[in-house]
Design goal:
330 residues; alpha/beta; seven-stranded mixed beta sheet; four-stranded antiparallel beta sheet; 12 helices
């Protein structure tokens, strides 16, 4: 559930390096911040009941029709909306370990898990493993299930080929979720959207509340699209740094790290618990990691980190090495 997610920076007072969130921590948001300052007067009025102006801009950027786009208050909002809207389907399928909100939302609306479910959820790239599924695999799942919900929130954090919005719409049964929150490194401004065939978007609109997306988030989305803003200036270089971090962590005695195709990676301790490691790093080193033990299918030794600057990554590896050395020699 929501209290078990990462980026719980609010719990700690002395953290200077945040490896817990998968979102790039060093994005230049100066232009967006100025846009928000200039538009703060918008909070005095209601926003659009449905943010059609932003949806039109998103549609143009994706080469789809405005009727095939629906903006939501973040990707998680879209996940819960889809689960609620299609609750009559009754069954769901997820591939563990993965983002817990798919299963949480389905269970809240009375679904049951089944391998041949009507509603299938796929996170691509997958959180927390960093695995990217091929287009072939995605299309195979779309053929096998009545509806495929394809969460591509981290598509701007990988060089792997992702299914485009136009390709997904043509499938006829794919609901694609994207996250401007993650793509533009603005987690405090909840902003996501769904692309799907017009008939599905129309059905989702009928289940959604009015004024769900606030005025400043709508204006921020427009500014980001107008300026082509990117959170990560050089994705290739950043992913190279992520692989360097993985290599260094693999060299730490007692730590295994899964292969990844994105900026974050899933690690496992052969001794000790991720909860204790997290506490040590936060309280004594000013660093925050993600205790991944609450992902379904993982255990107490699993944790997740996202690459940051080379200096920060070096500091993390040194701190984890120090902790594991003491643990393994007890």
């Amino acid at each position: 559930m929501i209290d078990g997610h990462g980026d719980d920076l609010y719990r700690y007072g002395n953290v200077g390096m945040n490896f817990s969130s998968n979102i790039y921590a060093h994005a230049d948001l100066a232009g967006l911040e100025e846009c928000l300052r200039q538009n703060v007067h918008l909070v005095r009025s209601y926003p659009e009941p449905s943010p059609r102006s932003l949806e039109k801009m998103i549609a143009e950027s994706l080469s789809v029709a405005p009727e095939e786009v629906m903006v939501t208050s973040g990707a998680t909002d879209a996940i819960w909306l889809v689960a609620q809207a299609f609750r009559q389907k009754g069954s769901y399928r997820v591939f563990s370990p993965t983002f817990s909100e798919y299963e949480d939302a389905c269970m809240a609306f009375g679904y049951v898990a089944h391998p041949e479910a009507s509603l299938c959820w796929l996170c691509n790239p997958n959180n927390p493993t960093g695995e990217a599924f091929s287009e072939k695999r995605v299309l195979e799942l779309a053929e096998r299930h009545e509806l495929l919900v394809l969460d591509q929130s981290y598509e701007d954090y990988t060089l792997a080929k992702m299914l485009s919005a136009r390709e997904a719409v043509r499938c006829g049964n794919v609901i694609q979720i994207r996250s401007m929150t993650k793509s533009h490194a603005i987690p405090g401004l909840r902003l996501g959207y769904v692309t799907a065939p017009a008939r599905i978007i129309d059905f989702l609109r009928g289940q959604y509340r009015p004024w769900a997306v606030n005025a400043l988030a709508i204006e921020a989305g427009k500014w980001l699209l107008r300026h082509g803003a990117k959170a990560i200036p050089d994705l290739s270089a950043y992913l190279d740094e992520a692989q360097r971090l993985r290599t260094m962590l693999c060299g730490v005695a007692g730590i295994d790290v899964m292969a990844t195709q994105t900026n974050f990676m899933l690690c496992h301790m052969e001794k000790g618990t991720a909860a204790d490691l997290k506490r040590y790093l936060a309280e004594e080193q000013g660093m925050l990691i993600r205790d991944a033990s609450n992902f379904k299918g993982l255990d107490g030794g699993h944790f997740r980190v996202a690459a940051q600057s080379p200096k920060e990554n070096d500091a993390l590896v040194a701190a984890v090495s120090k902790y594991m050395e003491g643990l393994l020699h007890e």
